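Hello again, I could really use a second opinion on something today. I've been puzzling over a protein and I'd love to understand its fold better. I'm sending you its amino acid sequence along with the backbone structure tokens. It would help a lot if you went through both lines with me. I've dropped the whole record in just underneath, so have a look.
***
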Amino acid sequence: MTFKIDPKLDLVLERVIDVPRELVWAAWTQPEHLKKWFCPRPWMVTECELDLRPGGIFRTVMRGPEGQEFPNIGCYLEVVPNERLVFTDALQPGYRPSENPFFTGALMLASQGAGTKYTAMAIHRDEATRKKHEDMGFHQGWGTALDQLVELAKSM
């Protein structure tokens, strides 16, 4: 599937990073790695459960510095090793509809020299939800998380 970006509904983070896409893939798909970079510090991921198959679970629990916790649960829609990962909170594991969908995420990886062209999209159902996500700090938060991923990948 090819994604066509709709600037009214989608938020996009695109960068070329200096780590091979196989390491980026490992950082996204192995819980012990994902827990180390997935949310900007001082926030942390305290729980992570991944079942890498369409309909499989994508669950994290993020904890803030004051101890507040934010559980996130969804499922994978598409899994193409080292190339594409699509997940959503609009559906629960096994494709059960969720009560409070927020967005669908798409990660696209392409080799670029010795590095990776990294494209992450947050796809929203309406402009208000997109704006809410942007106001929550999408660009800074996802950018900081990507910096943390690169730092981790270079140590793997």
Summary: The two ends are 30 Å apart (CA to CA). Residues 138-155 form the longest helix (18 residues). The chain has a mean pLDDT of 96.
